[in-house]
Amino acid sequence: MFGLRLDPIAFSLGPISVHWYGIILGSAALVGLLLAVREGRRFGLSPDFFMDLLLFGVPSAIIGARIYFVAFQWDEYKNHLMDVFKIWNGGIAIYGALIGAFVCGIIYFRQKGYSFWRIADICAPSLIAGQMIGRWGNFVNQEAYGGPVEEGFLRNTLHLPGWIVNQMNVEGTFHHPTFLYESLWNLVGLVILLIIRRRPFLRAGEALFFYFIWYSVGRFYVEGLRTDSLAFHGADWAASVLNALWSPMKTVFTAQGFLDPSYGNIRISQLLAVLLVVASIAMIIVRRRTGAAAEHYNDPIINFKTGLPAGTENKKKTDAANGNPPVEHDGGMTRGADESPIKE
Protein backbone atom coordinates (compact mmCIF):
# COMPACT_ATOMS: atom_id res chain seq x y z
CA MET A 1 0.00 0.00 0.00
CA PHE A 2 1.41 3.37 -1.04
CA GLY A 3 0.14 6.69 0.25
CA LEU A 4 -3.46 6.95 1.35
CA ARG A 5 -5.17 5.36 -1.65
CA LEU A 6 -8.94 5.71 -1.74
CA ASP A 7 -10.97 2.54 -1.47
CA PRO A 8 -12.73 1.99 -4.82
CA ILE A 9 -15.62 0.33 -2.94
CA ALA A 10 -17.99 2.89 -1.45
CA PHE A 11 -19.94 0.42 0.70
CA SER A 12 -21.17 -3.15 0.76
CA LEU A 13 -24.64 -4.61 1.14
CA GLY A 14 -23.96 -8.16 2.20
CA PRO A 15 -22.17 -9.86 -0.71
CA ILE A 16 -22.84 -6.89 -3.01
CA SER A 17 -20.12 -4.25 -3.27
CA VAL A 18 -21.08 -0.80 -4.53
CA HIS A 19 -18.15 0.87 -6.30
CA TRP A 20 -17.46 4.58 -6.37
CA TYR A 21 -16.98 4.23 -10.12
CA GLY A 22 -20.62 3.28 -10.57
CA ILE A 23 -21.85 5.98 -8.18
CA ILE A 24 -19.87 8.64 -10.02
CA LEU A 25 -21.08 7.52 -13.45
CA GLY A 26 -24.65 7.45 -12.13
CA SER A 27 -24.23 10.99 -10.78
CA ALA A 28 -22.85 12.11 -14.15
CA ALA A 29 -25.91 10.71 -15.91
CA LEU A 30 -28.25 12.40 -13.42
CA VAL A 31 -26.61 15.81 -13.83
CA GLY A 32 -26.79 15.42 -17.60
CA LEU A 33 -30.47 14.55 -17.36
CA LEU A 34 -31.28 17.58 -15.21
CA LEU A 35 -29.48 19.92 -17.63
CA ALA A 36 -31.35 18.50 -20.61
CA VAL A 37 -34.73 18.57 -18.85
CA ARG A 38 -34.31 22.19 -17.83
CA GLU A 39 -33.33 23.34 -21.32
CA GLY A 40 -35.91 21.10 -22.98
CA ARG A 41 -38.73 22.86 -21.12
CA ARG A 42 -37.90 26.07 -23.02
CA PHE A 43 -38.84 24.29 -26.23
CA GLY A 44 -41.90 22.45 -24.91
CA LEU A 45 -40.22 19.07 -24.48
CA SER A 46 -41.44 17.09 -21.48
CA PRO A 47 -39.15 15.62 -18.80
CA ASP A 48 -40.45 12.17 -19.80
CA PHE A 49 -38.91 12.65 -23.23
CA PHE A 50 -35.45 12.92 -21.69
CA MET A 51 -36.11 10.28 -19.05
CA ASP A 52 -36.85 7.77 -21.81
CA LEU A 53 -33.78 8.96 -23.70
CA LEU A 54 -31.66 8.33 -20.60
CA LEU A 55 -33.12 4.86 -20.11
CA PHE A 56 -32.18 3.91 -23.67
CA GLY A 57 -29.07 6.06 -24.05
CA VAL A 58 -27.06 5.10 -20.96
CA PRO A 59 -27.07 1.34 -21.64
CA SER A 60 -26.30 2.03 -25.31
CA ALA A 61 -23.37 4.27 -24.33
CA ILE A 62 -21.97 1.74 -21.84
CA ILE A 63 -22.26 -1.11 -24.33
CA GLY A 64 -20.63 0.98 -27.07
CA ALA A 65 -17.86 2.12 -24.73
CA ARG A 66 -17.08 -1.39 -23.58
CA ILE A 67 -17.16 -2.91 -27.08
CA TYR A 68 -14.82 -0.18 -28.33
CA PHE A 69 -12.35 -0.73 -25.48
CA VAL A 70 -12.41 -4.52 -25.60
CA ALA A 71 -12.00 -4.52 -29.39
CA PHE A 72 -8.67 -2.74 -29.07
CA GLN A 73 -7.59 -4.86 -26.08
CA TRP A 74 -8.84 -8.20 -27.38
CA ASP A 75 -5.61 -10.06 -26.64
CA GLU A 76 -6.15 -9.35 -22.94
CA TYR A 77 -9.79 -10.45 -22.93
CA LYS A 78 -10.00 -13.35 -25.37
CA ASN A 79 -8.96 -15.87 -22.71
CA HIS A 80 -10.96 -14.21 -19.91
CA LEU A 81 -14.34 -13.53 -21.47
CA MET A 82 -16.14 -12.91 -18.18
CA ASP A 83 -13.86 -9.92 -17.56
CA VAL A 84 -15.52 -8.22 -20.52
CA PHE A 85 -18.54 -7.50 -18.30
CA LYS A 86 -16.60 -6.11 -15.30
CA ILE A 87 -17.01 -2.44 -16.16
CA TRP A 88 -16.81 -1.47 -12.47
CA ASN A 89 -13.08 -2.09 -12.77
CA GLY A 90 -12.85 0.58 -15.45
CA GLY A 91 -11.97 0.04 -19.08
CA ILE A 92 -14.56 1.94 -21.08
CA ALA A 93 -13.74 4.30 -23.96
CA ILE A 94 -15.52 7.62 -24.33
CA TYR A 95 -15.51 7.54 -28.13
CA GLY A 96 -17.23 4.16 -28.01
CA ALA A 97 -19.76 5.63 -25.59
CA LEU A 98 -20.46 8.47 -28.01
CA ILE A 99 -20.97 6.05 -30.88
CA GLY A 100 -23.42 3.99 -28.83
CA ALA A 101 -25.28 7.05 -27.54
CA PHE A 102 -25.56 8.69 -30.96
CA VAL A 103 -26.83 5.56 -32.66
CA CYS A 104 -29.48 5.32 -29.95
CA GLY A 105 -30.26 9.04 -30.25
CA ILE A 106 -30.73 8.95 -34.03
CA ILE A 107 -33.23 6.11 -33.73
CA TYR A 108 -35.04 7.60 -30.72
CA PHE A 109 -35.34 11.15 -32.09
CA ARG A 110 -36.58 9.93 -35.44
CA GLN A 111 -39.17 7.70 -33.78
CA LYS A 112 -40.39 10.70 -31.77
CA GLY A 113 -40.50 12.93 -34.84
CA TYR A 114 -37.74 15.40 -34.01
CA SER A 115 -34.64 16.61 -35.83
CA PHE A 116 -31.49 14.93 -34.54
CA TRP A 117 -29.56 18.20 -34.68
CA ARG A 118 -32.06 20.15 -32.57
CA ILE A 119 -32.25 17.60 -29.75
CA ALA A 120 -28.52 16.82 -29.87
CA ASP A 121 -27.87 20.56 -29.38
CA ILE A 122 -29.92 20.48 -26.19
CA CYS A 123 -28.02 17.41 -24.99
CA ALA A 124 -24.54 18.79 -25.77
CA PRO A 125 -24.06 20.40 -22.33
CA SER A 126 -25.23 17.15 -20.74
CA LEU A 127 -22.54 15.23 -22.60
CA ILE A 128 -19.68 17.48 -21.58
CA ALA A 129 -20.95 17.72 -17.99
CA GLY A 130 -21.22 13.95 -17.81
CA GLN A 131 -17.64 13.56 -19.00
CA MET A 132 -16.46 16.21 -16.56
CA ILE A 133 -17.92 14.27 -13.63
CA GLY A 134 -17.24 10.80 -14.96
CA ARG A 135 -13.47 11.36 -15.08
CA TRP A 136 -13.46 11.29 -11.29
CA GLY A 137 -14.31 7.61 -11.53
CA ASN A 138 -10.90 7.15 -13.15
CA PHE A 139 -9.40 9.06 -10.24
CA VAL A 140 -10.86 6.68 -7.66
CA ASN A 141 -9.82 3.62 -9.68
CA GLN A 142 -6.28 4.97 -10.19
CA GLU A 143 -6.49 4.58 -13.95
CA ALA A 144 -6.15 6.74 -17.06
CA TYR A 145 -3.32 8.68 -15.42
CA GLY A 146 -0.33 10.27 -17.13
CA GLY A 147 3.39 9.70 -17.04
CA PRO A 148 5.53 9.93 -13.88
CA VAL A 149 6.15 13.30 -12.23
CA GLU A 150 7.83 14.54 -9.09
CA GLU A 151 5.67 14.91 -6.00
CA GLY A 152 6.76 18.55 -5.82
CA PHE A 153 5.21 19.22 -9.23
CA LEU A 154 1.81 18.16 -7.91
CA ARG A 155 2.08 19.86 -4.52
CA ASN A 156 4.08 22.99 -5.24
CA THR A 157 3.61 23.71 -8.96
CA LEU A 158 -0.01 22.65 -9.40
CA HIS A 159 -0.88 23.26 -5.72
CA LEU A 160 -3.14 20.22 -5.59
CA PRO A 161 -4.68 19.15 -2.29
CA GLY A 162 -3.11 16.20 -0.51
CA TRP A 163 -5.97 13.80 -1.19
CA ILE A 164 -5.45 14.17 -4.93
CA VAL A 165 -1.66 13.99 -4.68
CA ASN A 166 -1.85 10.83 -2.57
CA GLN A 167 -4.19 9.16 -5.06
CA MET A 168 -1.73 9.94 -7.86
CA ASN A 169 0.86 7.83 -6.05
CA VAL A 170 0.57 4.56 -7.95
CA GLU A 171 2.81 1.82 -6.54
CA GLY A 172 5.29 4.35 -5.25
CA THR A 173 5.41 6.63 -8.32
CA PHE A 174 3.51 9.90 -8.72
CA HIS A 175 1.72 10.51 -12.03
CA HIS A 176 0.09 13.33 -13.97
CA PRO A 177 -3.58 13.69 -12.86
CA THR A 178 -4.87 13.59 -16.42
CA PHE A 179 -8.39 12.98 -15.10
CA LEU A 180 -8.21 16.43 -13.48
CA TYR A 181 -6.82 18.17 -16.56
CA GLU A 182 -9.64 16.81 -18.70
CA SER A 183 -12.31 17.47 -16.07
CA LEU A 184 -11.30 21.13 -15.73
CA TRP A 185 -11.12 21.54 -19.51
CA ASN A 186 -14.66 20.20 -19.77
CA LEU A 187 -15.83 22.54 -17.01
CA VAL A 188 -14.62 25.55 -19.01
CA GLY A 189 -16.25 24.12 -22.14
CA LEU A 190 -19.54 23.65 -20.30
CA VAL A 191 -19.59 27.28 -19.17
CA ILE A 192 -18.84 28.52 -22.69
CA LEU A 193 -21.51 26.26 -24.18
CA LEU A 194 -24.15 27.48 -21.71
CA ILE A 195 -23.33 31.05 -22.72
CA ILE A 196 -23.18 30.75 -26.50
CA ARG A 197 -26.38 28.72 -26.82
CA ARG A 198 -28.31 31.91 -25.97
CA ARG A 199 -26.58 33.89 -28.70
CA PRO A 200 -28.48 34.57 -31.95
CA PHE A 201 -25.62 33.50 -34.23
CA LEU A 202 -25.80 29.83 -33.17
CA ARG A 203 -27.43 27.60 -35.79
CA ALA A 204 -28.98 24.14 -35.46
CA GLY A 205 -26.32 21.51 -34.84
CA GLU A 206 -23.60 23.97 -33.92
CA ALA A 207 -23.83 23.47 -30.14
CA LEU A 208 -23.09 19.81 -30.80
CA PHE A 209 -20.21 20.67 -33.13
CA PHE A 210 -18.78 23.08 -30.54
CA TYR A 211 -18.86 20.24 -28.02
CA PHE A 212 -17.00 17.96 -30.45
CA ILE A 213 -14.37 20.61 -31.16
CA TRP A 214 -13.82 21.68 -27.56
CA TYR A 215 -13.71 18.18 -26.11
CA SER A 216 -11.49 16.84 -28.90
CA VAL A 217 -8.91 19.62 -28.58
CA GLY A 218 -8.59 18.99 -24.84
CA ARG A 219 -8.60 15.22 -25.27
CA PHE A 220 -5.85 15.38 -27.90
CA TYR A 221 -3.39 17.07 -25.56
CA VAL A 222 -4.38 15.17 -22.42
CA GLU A 223 -4.19 11.86 -24.27
CA GLY A 224 -0.58 12.59 -25.12
CA LEU A 225 0.29 12.52 -21.42
CA ARG A 226 -1.33 9.15 -20.71
CA THR A 227 0.50 5.85 -20.47
CA ASP A 228 -2.48 3.58 -21.22
CA SER A 229 -3.53 4.88 -24.63
CA LEU A 230 -5.18 2.55 -27.11
CA ALA A 231 -2.86 2.58 -30.12
CA PHE A 232 -2.07 0.96 -33.44
CA HIS A 233 0.77 0.79 -35.94
CA GLY A 234 0.23 3.43 -38.58
CA ALA A 235 2.21 5.42 -41.13
CA ASP A 236 5.27 7.13 -39.70
CA TRP A 237 4.29 10.43 -41.33
CA ALA A 238 0.92 10.37 -39.52
CA ALA A 239 2.62 9.70 -36.20
CA SER A 240 5.01 12.59 -36.89
CA VAL A 241 2.11 14.96 -37.62
CA LEU A 242 0.38 14.05 -34.35
CA ASN A 243 3.62 14.46 -32.40
CA ALA A 244 4.21 17.85 -34.03
CA LEU A 245 0.71 19.00 -33.08
CA TRP A 246 1.35 17.97 -29.48
CA SER A 247 4.84 19.51 -29.29
CA PRO A 248 3.73 22.95 -27.91
CA MET A 249 2.81 21.15 -24.67
CA LYS A 250 6.47 20.28 -24.10
CA THR A 251 7.03 23.73 -22.62
CA VAL A 252 4.72 22.74 -19.75
CA PHE A 253 4.87 18.96 -19.46
CA THR A 254 8.32 18.19 -20.97
CA ALA A 255 7.36 14.94 -22.70
CA GLN A 256 4.47 12.72 -23.68
CA GLY A 257 3.51 9.68 -21.67
CA PHE A 258 5.24 6.43 -22.59
CA LEU A 259 3.80 4.52 -25.52
CA ASP A 260 5.35 1.10 -26.13
CA PRO A 261 6.59 1.08 -29.76
CA SER A 262 5.71 -2.60 -30.04
CA TYR A 263 2.09 -1.72 -29.20
CA GLY A 264 1.72 1.08 -31.73
CA ASN A 265 2.91 4.50 -32.82
CA ILE A 266 -0.43 6.30 -33.15
CA ARG A 267 -2.73 6.95 -30.21
CA ILE A 268 -6.25 6.20 -31.44
CA SER A 269 -7.90 8.89 -29.32
CA GLN A 270 -5.52 11.55 -30.64
CA LEU A 271 -6.23 10.58 -34.23
CA LEU A 272 -9.99 10.56 -33.66
CA ALA A 273 -9.76 13.92 -31.89
CA VAL A 274 -8.07 15.53 -34.90
CA LEU A 275 -10.57 13.97 -37.31
CA LEU A 276 -13.51 15.17 -35.18
CA VAL A 277 -12.21 18.74 -35.07
CA VAL A 278 -11.69 18.83 -38.85
CA ALA A 279 -15.03 17.16 -39.56
CA SER A 280 -16.95 19.45 -37.17
CA ILE A 281 -15.50 22.62 -38.66
CA ALA A 282 -16.23 21.32 -42.17
CA MET A 283 -19.80 20.45 -41.21
CA ILE A 284 -20.44 23.93 -39.80
CA ILE A 285 -19.20 25.55 -43.02
CA VAL A 286 -21.02 23.16 -45.37
CA ARG A 287 -24.32 23.28 -43.47
CA ARG A 288 -24.29 27.08 -43.46
CA ARG A 289 -23.42 27.41 -47.15
CA THR A 290 -25.99 24.85 -48.28
CA GLY A 291 -28.77 26.17 -46.07
CA ALA A 292 -28.99 22.95 -44.06
CA ALA A 293 -28.43 25.04 -40.93
CA ALA A 294 -31.13 27.59 -41.70
CA GLU A 295 -32.71 27.05 -38.28
CA HIS A 296 -31.20 28.78 -35.28
CA TYR A 297 -30.69 27.14 -31.91
CA ASN A 298 -33.39 29.30 -30.30
CA ASP A 299 -36.03 28.70 -32.97
CA PRO A 300 -39.06 26.58 -31.98
CA ILE A 301 -38.52 22.84 -32.40
CA ILE A 302 -41.03 21.44 -34.88
CA ASN A 303 -42.18 17.83 -34.80
CA PHE A 304 -41.90 16.68 -38.42
CA LYS A 305 -44.63 14.07 -37.91
CA THR A 306 -47.27 16.55 -36.76
CA GLY A 307 -45.90 19.81 -38.16
CA LEU A 308 -46.50 21.39 -34.75
CA PRO A 309 -44.08 22.90 -32.22
CA ALA A 310 -42.79 20.54 -29.54
CA GLY A 311 -45.18 20.09 -26.64
CA THR A 312 -48.24 21.30 -28.55
CA GLU A 313 -50.02 17.94 -28.55
CA ASN A 314 -49.59 17.53 -24.80
CA LYS A 315 -50.93 21.05 -24.26
CA LYS A 316 -53.96 20.35 -26.45
CA LYS A 317 -54.74 17.22 -24.44
CA THR A 318 -54.41 19.17 -21.18
CA ASP A 319 -56.61 22.01 -22.47
CA ALA A 320 -59.26 19.54 -23.62
CA ALA A 321 -59.24 17.82 -20.22
CA ASN A 322 -59.65 21.19 -18.50
CA GLY A 323 -62.43 22.34 -20.85
CA ASN A 324 -60.33 25.10 -22.43
CA PRO A 325 -60.90 26.10 -26.10
CA PRO A 326 -58.52 24.48 -28.61
CA VAL A 327 -55.46 26.36 -29.77
CA GLU A 328 -54.68 26.75 -33.44
CA HIS A 329 -51.23 27.17 -34.89
CA ASP A 330 -50.34 29.14 -37.99
CA GLY A 331 -46.70 29.32 -39.03
CA GLY A 332 -45.55 29.01 -35.43
CA MET A 333 -47.92 31.77 -34.22
CA THR A 334 -50.50 30.85 -31.61
CA ARG A 335 -54.08 32.02 -31.28
CA GLY A 336 -57.19 30.84 -29.50
CA ALA A 337 -60.16 29.47 -31.46
CA ASP A 338 -62.10 32.71 -31.00
CA GLU A 339 -59.19 35.04 -31.78
CA SER A 340 -58.02 36.55 -35.04
CA PRO A 341 -54.58 35.66 -36.41
CA ILE A 342 -51.62 37.49 -34.90
CA LYS A 343 -50.22 39.99 -37.37
CA GLU A 344 -46.85 41.65 -37.35
Automatic annotation (TrEMBL):
Known EC number: 2.5.1.145
Pathway annotation from the record: Protein modification; lipoprotein biosynthesis (diacylglyceryl transfer)
Enzyme class: transferase
Bilayer-crossing regions: 20-37, 49-72, 92-109, 203-222, 268-286
Family: Belongs to the Lgt family.
Binding site for a 1,2-diacyl-sn-glycero-3-phospho-(1'-sn-glycerol): 135
Subcellular location field: Cell membrane
InterPro entries according to UniProt: Lgt
Protein name as it appears in the record: Phosphatidylglycerol--prolipoprotein diacylglyceryl transferase
Main localization category: membrane
Annotated gene: lgt
Organism: Paenibacillus artemisiicola
